[in-house]
Structure formats: C-alpha cells, structure tokens
Amino acid sequence: MAQTPKINKDECSACVLCTTICDQVFKMSDDGMNAEVIPLAPEKYEALKAEIEEAMQSCPSACIVWAD
Ligand code: SF4
C-alpha cells in the first residue's frame, strides 16, 4: 500500500524548506504557523517519493514522516 507523508505540526518550525523542495505536496497553513501535506491520491505521493524524501531529510525539525 502506498504511504502518505505526514507532518508532526507541533514540531514544525515553519521554515518553509519543504514547500520549496516540493510544492506539489507541502504548503504552509493559512496562518503560516506550520507546513501541511496537500491531500493527494496515494499514487501521486508515490510518484513524488524522491522529492518527498528529500524534504524529509532536509527538514531541520525532522518532523516529516511516512504514515501508513
Ligand atoms: S521543512 Fe520541516 S520544519 Fe520546515 S516547514 Fe517543512 S515540516 Fe516545517
């Protein structure tokens, strides 16, 4: 089953790096206090896996994870 990225919002420092790396998957919340995962079909996350994992590895708070 395809995995879905998830952001632990309490740990997000709103640095916007993930949104810069992959703006198809990550965006800032309306209040700008944290990043959010854009709801997409699981196949889309699979197709963007390399960019998502780059964002995960680049996140200074290490708060982007795969959720089953
Ligand atoms: S890279 Fe990490 S800390 Fe920065 S906005 Fe994205 S989730 Fe938040």
Q: Describe it for me?
A:
With 68 residues, the protein is an alpha+beta fold. It has one domain: 2-Layer Sandwich (Alpha-Beta Plaits), CATH 3.30.70. It contains three helices and four strands, in the order βαββααβ. The strands form two sheets. It has a two-stranded antiparallel sheet with strand order 1-4. Bound molecules: iron/sulfur cluster. It holds the Pfam family Fer4_13. Residues 3-31 form the 4Fe-4S ferredoxin-type domain.
Estimate the mean pLDDT confidence: 96
Order of helices and strands: EHEEHHE
Each distinct ligand: iron/sulfur cluster
Q: What coarse outline follows from CA principal-axis ratios? A: globular
Kindly estimate the percentage of residues that lie in beta strands according to DSSP. 15-25%
Distance between the termini: 8 Å
Query: How large, in whole angstroms, is the Cα Rg?
Result: 11 Å
Indicate the CATH topology.
Alpha-Beta Plaits
The number of E-state strands comes to: 4
- The appropriate CATH architecture is 2-Layer Sandwich
Task: Name the features.
single chain; 68 residues; alpha+beta; Alpha-Beta Plaits; two-stranded antiparallel sheet; two-stranded antiparallel ribbon; 3 helices; 4 strands; binds iron/sulfur cluster
